[in-house]
Specification:
Elements: H1 3-12, H2 14-18, E1 78-79, H3 80-91, H4 101-107, H5 114-123, H6 133-150, E2 153-154
Parallel strand pairs: 1-2
Helix pairs in contact: 5-6
Biased composition (Pro residues): 28-48
Organism: Rhizobium mesoamericanum STM3625
Domain DUF3597: 3-156
Length: 161
């Protein structure tokens, strides 16, 4: 399991950490061809279809093409501030997870060594010098907040700047 996955699981829980951010599939723009019409003919609109120049009352329901089932309801966002504040309280240490990747990793019970942070930097696409720990740590914290937000975490807005 990657370091990011372990952090995500510790903060977001099993279900959201494992669920990648996905976009919904595009709906078909044209209906299937009718066997009674030539291939280049446009079929007439069905009952209740908007007439030319009108807008449909509601968008089509998007379903899973494999099963025909509607997409699952999104899981509620996990408030990472609540989770991490509780983790800090439980740690018994004075940790500033809002500004320090080291403290954030310690709060969730992880090894925050330079080696572990270097591995996390590679996972998150850091292209800078991993021996410049100040720059790397800033990148890690900022990128981690963004990724947690993309994966179902409710991140305080000031940490997404």
């Amino acid at each position: 399991m990657s370091i990011f996955d372990r952090i995500g699981k510790a903060i977001l829980g099993d279900a959201q950490a494992a669920a990648p951010v996905q976009s919904l599939p595009a709906s078909p723009l044209t209906p299937p061809a009718s066997p009674d019409l030539p291939s280049d003919a446009v079929p007439p609109p069905g009952p209740g279809a908007p007439q030319s120049g009108q807008i449909a009352e509601r968008p089509p329901i998007i379903t899973d093409p494999a099963t025909g089932a509607p997409p699952p309801a999104p899981a509620p966002a996990v408030d990472i501030e609540d989770v991490l504040d509780e983790a800090v309280r439980n740690s018994g240490q004075k940790l500033d997870w809002r500004h320090s990747i080291v403290d954030l990793m310690k709060a969730v019970g992880m090894d925050a060594s330079l080696h572990e942070r270097g591995e996390l930097a590679r996972e998150l696409g850091y292209a800078g010098d991993t021996t410049d720990s100040a720059k790397m740590n800033t990148f890690l914290h900022k990128t981690l907040m963004k990724r947690l937000s993309e994966n179902g975490g409710k991140v305080p807005p000031d940490l997404l700047d």
